[in-house]
Amino acid sequence: MDGSSSGVDKTMNLSDAVRRFVLPGSTVSLEGFTHAIPTAAGHEIIRQGITGLTLVRMTADIVVDQMLAAGCIDTLISSFVGNSSAGSLGEIRRRIERDDPAPLRFVEYSHHGLVCRYLAGAKRLPFYPIRSYFGSDLPSVNDELRVVTSPFPMEDGTLEQIYVVPPINPDVTIIHAQRSDRAGNVQMWGLTGVQAEAVFAARHAIVTVEEIVEDEVVRSDPNRTIVPSHAIDAVVEVPMGAHPSFAQGYYDRDNEFYRAWAGISADRLQLAAWLREWVYGLADHRAYVDHLGGDTRERLRVGSAPSLPVEYGTRIGR
Amino acid sequence: MTTTMSPSADVAASVEETMTVAAARALVGKHRVFAGIGMPTLAVALAQQTVAKDIEVIYESGVCGAHPSELPATIADAVLITGSEAVLSMPALFGYVLQAGRIDVGFLGAAQIDRYGNLNSSVIGEWSHPEKRLPGSGGALEVLANAREVYVVMRRHTPAAFVDILDFCTSAGPERVEAAGGRPFGLGVTKVFTGYGTLSRTGPGEELELTEVHRGVDPDQAVAATGWPLRTARGLRTIEPPTAAELNLLRNQIDPKRVYLR
Lengths: 318, 262
What we know:
The complex is a heterodimer.
Chain A: H1 14-21, E1 27-30, H2 39-47, E2 53-56, H3 62-69, E3 73-78, H4 90-98, E4 105-108, H5 111-123, E5 128-130, H6 138-141, E6 146-153, E7 159-165, E8 172-180, E9 186-187, H7 195-201, E10 204-212, H8 215-219, E11 225-227, E12 234-237, H9 255-266, H10 268-280, H11 285-299
Parallel strand pairs in A: 1-2, 1-8, 2-3, 3-4, 8-10, 10-12
Antiparallel strand pairs in A: 5-7, 6-7, 8-9, 9-11
Helix pairs in contact in A: 1-2, 2-3, 3-4, 5-7
Chain B: H1 15-25, E1 32-34, H2 39-48, E2 56-58, E3 63-64, H3 78-81, E4 86-87, H4 90-99, E5 105-108, E6 112-113, E7 119-120, E8 123-124, E9 132-133, H5 140-146, E10 149-154, H6 174-179, E11 189-194, E12 197-200, E13 209-213, H7 219-224, E14 231-238, H8 244-254
Helix pairs in contact in B: 1-2
């Protein structure tokens, strides 16, 4: 048997991956539920000045505030626009509250509603039923939340009314993960959120990873793969690519920066200065990590807690 | 200073500590709790060592059976994952666990609550151009729709937060679900822990009423701080102050660094 053949090598640098797959005016999903947020990719979108995007992200947090301030996003589809108990997101509040400096089209969901949109998208279904939204005011501000009648009677013979949400099929989904092989077999542990569904729903997918590993590393633990290579178009090695969020087992969340963002984003000039210093003024994410400095990297360093290996077994020739 | 170290520790119990203890005691007989960070996490940790030893907390991030080495800073803190019993994906957490009705008690907070426990966490003012844009539902809408019952934590008990009419209903209780043509599943909000006391009801159709006050609180203070005509329960009780054992657990084991308890 052929033990060596690997898939196509899809590794590229972040600049090329973003230029090729994130087109102006397209629909882009960035997923990562507090863990493994693809921040470096968001910054590269800002650096390339890509505009007119429809951005899909369950928890629109700091990276979304930054992309809004940089003028990348016209429409935001989200179920939570907050900074995880660390204060407000200044730019998103100015955009929504005062159209300042420009209106934002905001399509508001709840978490499970967006999960179901990804599920419908991943399965190429016309809609997905969900036991939410009755009695909420959300359907009055989001006409994509609609009611259908179940074709199957309940025990009492009546037909249940149920909300449905439409599929979402992003032009490109970008996720960050701990590791991948060169073909794009993505391995992740810790919080895996909705990343697999967001990738399968998309037309194209980019994964940024802490490290690209040899094929045998992936194949030693295939159940760790959350997305197989056939669903991935580009693999980009970006160490600390999720900062200020974390990568389980690699570095911790930068809670100091989360708290600082409320102050930075409250003032548009300070936010603009931040973007100049940390995004526009740096060539790439390697420069960003250098700029963070050794003290910050040391502060975010984590101790060791390895999993025990499992036994997959081999066929014994008899 | 020596007097505050006395075993009759109720003299030193803060409002936060008393609220946490009241919430923990309300978890007797409960098994699976959906909790956010802060006071709900502390209340569950205290209940695990007092009234509900087999209680399991499930976090919105997907973590079940967390055994953190220190208090988590967020519901997705790395310390919740390391050593936990299970980490679920979002479709599993929201679909199989929450929507399927496996949660006994969900803890929620909100910017506004009305007399039936409907909640607003979206906006103050009009949705399209609000005075203040708030984070929105997250999973709160699904927690209120699907948990068996919901406990709400509202540290600030003010007329701006306890309102006659919500600016926007993010998360609907069973009365609103039914009125809109849906099938309600849980009891909705059954307890609200506030800086003045506890508001309670047993289920749909009932208004929340003041059932407990913190020691030293005049019930009229709570009524005056509520934007609807809050009824005081017959048999209104004073919350039994935290015991020395409860305070010892909270201060020396559960939150020794005073991350949440001040």
